[in-house]
Amino acid sequence: MKWEVVIGLEVHVQLNTASKIFSGSSTAFGAEPNTQASVVELAFPGVLPVLNRAVVDKAIRLGLALNATINKKNVFARKNYFYPDLPKGYQISQMDLPIVGPGTLTILVGEEEKVIRVTRAHMEEDAGKSLHEDFQGMTGIDLNRAGTPLLEVVSEPDMRSAEEAVAYARALHTLVTWLGICDGNMQEGSFRVDANVSVRPFGQAEFGTRREIKNLNSFRFLEQAIKYEIQWQIDTLEDGGRIEQATVLFDPDSGETRMMRSKEDAHDYRYFPDPDLLPVVLSDDDIARVAATMPELPGQMKARFVAEYGVSAYDAALLTTSLAHAEYFEQVARATGQGKLAANWINGELAARLNREGLELAACPIDAPRLAGLVVRVADGTLSNKLAKQVFDALWVDALSADEVIERDGLKQVSDVGAIEKMVEEAIAANPKAVEEFRAGKEKALNALAGQVMKASKGKANPAQVQDILRQKLA
Amino acid sequence: MSLTHQDVARIAQLARIEVTDAQVEATLAQLNNIFGLIEQMQAVDTTGIEPMAHPQDVSLRLRDDVVTETDHREAYQAVAPQVEKGLFLVPKVIE
User: Fold this and answer.
1) Which of A26, A190, A357, A407 fits as disulfide partner to A14, beta carbons 3.0 to 4.6 Å?
2) Which CATH architecture has domain B5-42?
3) Same domain, yes or no, for A426 and A361?
């Protein structure tokens, strides 16, 4: 039987505020345990939460970027459950009236664009951390993370493969870092993904029973976990089994998902409006104030790169995977007036090298002005592609400009007609057989002669010129 | 609607409250009373009335994003039954 995969994602985006969502405690990562937990996070009797304005503004920012409805009246609710890293016995979240309503996010799968619907995004507080290492047979609790502001972004079940799910997660990651509302650090848990996965026979209208994979903190694990889960569900169904609704965890060591809890012991959260917090009411001005600070968004910038610099849609998509990439490209393109060539170098040589060395663009040893210096010399014919790669390698290790490297290593391409003519004549004289073959109509023989000239020039002759002069001399 | 003994046991379990059989009996009667009141309220026609999330028709005031708290770990942990290396210790929990 042919199966169709259905995936929806819930992403917890940690907002990069200075203080917590409901108190003036610091949110800085990595502090000594419990030194950033105030009486609000510790749930001392009588304390009251006071909402951080920056959390509201950042939520509006994401809402606007997703073309979503902003609910001008939204309400906090209590989600009740018992766990020691949540001292109040409830998490303050939003249920019926979240701040961000339906919107959309466009993703790129291969070279195809697809629009994924976003159901909602709501504000909530993070819980603390439980450390299960042995503390005299007890569990250690660190509440520094408790009260850190989160936006939970929920998608519709619009994705049909693990690749689409990863593309959506990446697009959302790009967007929240682009907007400057999240640091995007997945190792530190700033961007955590839950995946709801089900399968159904092709053509069936109803969804299959879903299982939720919790807390995936890398794109690689997200893809591995979904692929494993899909195969497991298909195998189970084809063996005549049934899928039970459940929450599962992914084990990166075994590459498998395993059941955490079944539907029978699923939580009953007994949500109700939090009487400690009044409804959040936003005015048109509140929204306009945030809208006025919105940057050019990835989609808009992509379209502009195609129109303004003549790069392909695919190149433009690669160049807008992060704000850092886009800014780097634009600096090089502006400095050189060579958008396409700049895009080729950034998406080609530079991307490959960064990838090989496991570096992010921020740590790239070649900054935009120095790459621009190289692109200029390729564009004006000073450097052949081969020489340009040599200069690129030198720029990677030496703090010199492209021109300084060309001067130091004597890499200037020879475009002097007289000098090339002399080398061409020598090559013709030394290779009578190739000359004869070419004159007999064998085009390939010309390449052999050109190769000789390039060799004689130590790779510095302008290859196009060499071809032209050879043809003239042999005509 | 009327609750059963099982409903009361389940509610008590969710709230982590231990109840004896005699208490279940008494609680059942009290809860059914409350549900009777709710039923009366639900009989009122509320068509066209916007639900309220809070009894007062006022909106939330926000605070600026500024760190105002300092470290009072020692004072806060003075009332904790057990601490180690700055962590609160609780009976082992593994979900």
Assistant:
1) A190
2) Orthogonal Bundle (1.10)
3) no
Looking at beta carbons, which residues of chain A come within 8 Å of B65?
17-19, 52-55
Give residues 193 to 212 of A whose Cβ lies within 8 Å of B. Answer: none
The verdict on A341 and A257 lying in the same domain is: no
Nearest CA to A149 out of A176, A127, A177 is that of A127
> With contact defined as beta carbons under 8 Å apart, do A113 and A103 qualify?
no
| Smallest Cα distance from B17 to chain A, Å | 12
**Spatial distance between the Cα atoms of A213 and A247, rounded to a whole number of angstroms:** 6
CA of A108, closest CA in chain B: separation in Å?
A: 35
Give the CATH number for residue A467: 1.10.10.410
Same-domain check for residues A186 and A203: yes
Q: Which residue of B has its CA nearest to A58?
A: B65
In whole angstroms, give the CA distance from residue A404 to residue A391: 10
Using the predicted structure, report yes or no on whether residue B95 has a pLDDT greater than 60: no
Question: What is the token pair recorded at B90?
Answer: 């609780």
Domain co-membership, A8 together with A68: yes
Mark whether A161 and A30 lie in a shared domain.
Answer: yes
Among all residues of chain B, which has the CA nearest to that of A17? B65
Q: What is the pLDDT of residue A47?
A: 96
Chain A residues 99-138 within an 8 A CB cutoff of chain B: 130-132, 135-138
Helices (H), A254-367: 284-291, 298-309, 313-319, 323-336, 339-345, 351-357
Same domain, A282 and A307: no
Pairing state between β A103-109 and A112-125: antiparallel
Q: Supply the ipTM of this predicted assembly.
A: 0.90
Shared domain check, A427 and A337: no
Instruction: Report the chain A residue with the minimal C-alpha distance to residue B73.
Output: A35
Q: Please list every residue in chain A whose beta carbon sits closer than 8 Å to the beta carbon of residue B76.
A: 34, 37, 39, 42, 44
Find the domain containing A102 and state its range.
3-289
| Number of domains forming the structure of chain A | 3
3-state secondary structure of B84: strand
* A357 and A228 within one domain: no
Closest chain A residue by Cα to residue B91: A138
Q: What is the pLDDT of residue B65?
A: 98
Split chain A (475 residues) into runs of 10 and give each run's mean pLDDT: 95 98 96 97 96 98 98 96 93 97 93 93 96 84 97 98 97 96 95 97 94 95 97 96 94 90 75 95 97 95 95 92 94 95 95 92 94 93 86 93 88 78 87 87 85 82 84 83
Size of interface A-B (CB pairs under 8 A): 124
| A34 has a chain B CB within 8 A of its CB | yes
* B65/A53 touch (CB, cutoff 8 Å), yes or no: yes
Cβ separation A278–B59 shorter than 8 A: yes
Point out the domain boundary residue: A359, A387, A409.
A409
Nearest to A23 by CA among B60, B68, B72: B68
Torsion over CA of A330, A334, A337 and A342, rounded to 10 degrees? Answer: -30
Please answer yes or no on whether A279 and B53 come within 8 Å at the CB atom. yes
